[in-house]
Every structure is written in C-alpha cells, then in structure tokens.
Specification:
Blueprint: E1 9-10, E2 16-17, E3 20-31, E4 34-45, E5 49-53, H1 60-67, E6 75-80, E7 83-84, H2 90-95, E8 98-101, H3 113-119, H4 129-134, H5 136-156, H6 172-185, E9 190-194, H7 202-219, E10 222-226, H8 230-236, E11 239-244, E12 247-252, H9 254-258, H10 261-268
Helix pairs in contact: 3-6, 5-6
Bound molecules: adenosine-5'-triphosphate.
Length: about 270
C-alpha cells in the first residue's frame, strides 16, 4: 500500500481506494452503566474492505449498529459523504445506501430464497399500496426493474438452483449467502457484514471470501466487516480497526496491526474463536 492522501491510496494488489466515505468521530455508546464504545474514531474509504476485530464483548457489533442506525451514540458524530449525519432510524440509513447482514441470520425462514432477496429491494420501492391501485402501470414497471436487480444478484452469488427453495431447508452456509444476496439487492454503497463466516466450514469460508472480494471488485461496493477468523480478516481487508473493552487499540493495514504490540497482547497473542 502507498501513502494515504486525501484522494486515497493504491492497495498492495493494485486496487484504487478513494476518499473518505464514512467517518466516525469520537463515538461513545453506553448501555446504562456499561460503556460499550469509548471515544472511538476511524474512517472508511470509498472502495475499501475495512475490518473491525477484537475479543468478545469488545464493542464491534455495537459499532456496526451505530453505523447502521440501530443505536444512537450518546457522544460523537457520524459523517457520511462529507456531511454530518443527524440521528436517524435504520430505514433512513438504509435509504442512504447502507445495507447489512446480521451475526445471527435474520431471514424469513418460510419464504423462498427469491422472496427473501426481493425484500432487499424494499427501500427502493416508491409505489405504495394506494398508488399501486391507481397507477398500476408504474407499479408494474417498478416491479420489473426490481426483479432485474434481484435476478442479477442471484446469478452473481450462484444461487439460481435454490431460488424457489424455502430458506428453512437450506444448509447454514447457503443461508449466509442468501443474507448477503438480500443485502446486495439493495445495491448498497456501503455493505456491513457482521461475522459473515461465523459457523462455516473451510469450504464455505473460501466461497464467502471469494464472493466478498468479487462484490467489492465488480460493483465497487465499500465493505466493513466484523470477523473472528484472523486468516480471513488478514487476507480480505485493506485496513483493520482493533477494539478491546470498547476502546480502539489499533488501526492500520493487516501487517501494521499484526505487528502492533498492544494488539498482540490483547487479542492476537491469545486464543480466540
Ligand atoms: N443492547 C445491549 N444492552 C446492554 N448491553 C449491551 C447491549 N449490546 C451490547 N452490550 C454490551 O456492550 C459490550 C459490547 O458488546 P458487543 O456485542 O458490541 O461486543 P462484540 O465485540 O460485538 O462481541 P462479540 O464478538 O461477542 O459479538 C458488552 O459488554 C455487551 O454486554
């Protein structure tokens, strides 16, 4: 990686990373007496794959929840595309182009893969029930356009064969892929992945890693992910934020983080899942 300038940097593998897309400034989040996040600042750049790592309870999911609007921090500011973000609800954050997957799969188990992925288009649907009744043509055109995006995502993630299958019948690894498909159907600018490889076998992890890299490469999607598998994190990410007990203890390229003594002491040097 070359030096980071305002415009961005070139990664070791030659990808062009752009300007800052999202900036977290001095974020503090409390749950009653528990401080989940203490005064953390970091940024995510256009086109980057950014990881957040740290031991259990470090505050990683809380941070992802702040980015996606599920939690409003008591202190600090969230900046997106150069503007300070007012406190907003998750659906408003989604409308700004931020989509996410969850640590525990959150799909509609009884619905087919196709219908689950279609729900990813909800933030793009402009026609309400009333206008659908009055302007049937417009609603139909919208439906066709939404279907096109969804079919493209289904092809891209190679899940055509299971498009009609109810999610409940799928093995775990495929469910995770369907969750990724639903998030991608929203055509996000920033994709948040909460432990995308958790519970997967080696082969499933390899598939998921490839899809994450392909999404970033093909659609230019910026990705922020939480992951415990260090091999995966170090392979996939351009830069890594390390959290411990709600504080930031490291931030840099995988190599910088790997050689950071605080990080080794708190996390990398000890056994973790
Ligand atoms: N909704 C909540 N109410 C109260 N405390 C919470 C809540 N969510 C998180 N916490 C606390 O905040 C701290 C950070 O939790 P968080 O889930 O963000 O950590 P994490 O790094 O994602 O952990 P893990 O790797 O185990 O998922 C923990 O002490 C946790 O108990």
């Amino acid at each position: 990686m070359n030096q980071i300038s305002d415009e961005g940097y070139i990664t070791a593998d030659g990808r062009k990373i752009g300007a800052v897309m999202m900036e977290m400034k001095n974020i503090t989040l409390r749950f009653g007496g528990v401080k989940a996040i203490t005064d953390i600042s970091f940024d995510i750049r256009q086109g980057e794959i950014r990881a957040i790592i740290g031991p259990n309870g470090a505050g990683k999911s809380s941070m992802l929840n702040v980015i996606s609007g599920f939690y409003i921090p008591q202190e600090g500011e969230v900046w997106f595309h150069g503007k300070k973000r007012a406190p907003m609800r998750p659906f408003q954050v989604a409308q700004q182009g931020i989509a996410r997957t969850f640590q525990n799969i959150a799909l509609f188990e009884g619905m087919s893969v196709l219908d689950n992925v279609m729900t990813g288009r909800l933030t793009h649907m402009k026609s309400g029930m009333l206008s659908q009744a009055i302007w049937k043509g417009k609603a139909e055109r919208e439906e066709v356009a939404n279907r096109e995006v969804v079919e493209k995502v289904i092809d891209f993630l190679e899940i055509q064969a299971i498009r009609k299958t109810p999610v409940a019948r799928l093995p775990y690894g495929l469910k995770k892929r369907v969750e990724l498909a639903r998030a991608l159907a929203a055509e996000p600018k920033l994709l948040l992945l909460d432990e995308p490889m958790a519970g997967m076998n080696v082969e499933e992890k390899e598939d998921m890693s490839r899809f994450i890299l392909d999404v970033n490469d093909e659609f230019g999607t910026t990705i922020a992910l939480i992951e415990h598998d260090m091999g995966v994190v170090m392979d996939l990410s351009d830069r890594v934020v390390v959290m411990d007990y709600g504080k930031k203890i490291g931030d840099g390229t995988p190599d910088e983080v790997r050689n950071n003594q605080n990080v080794i002491d708190a996390y990398l040097g000890v056994a973790h899942d």
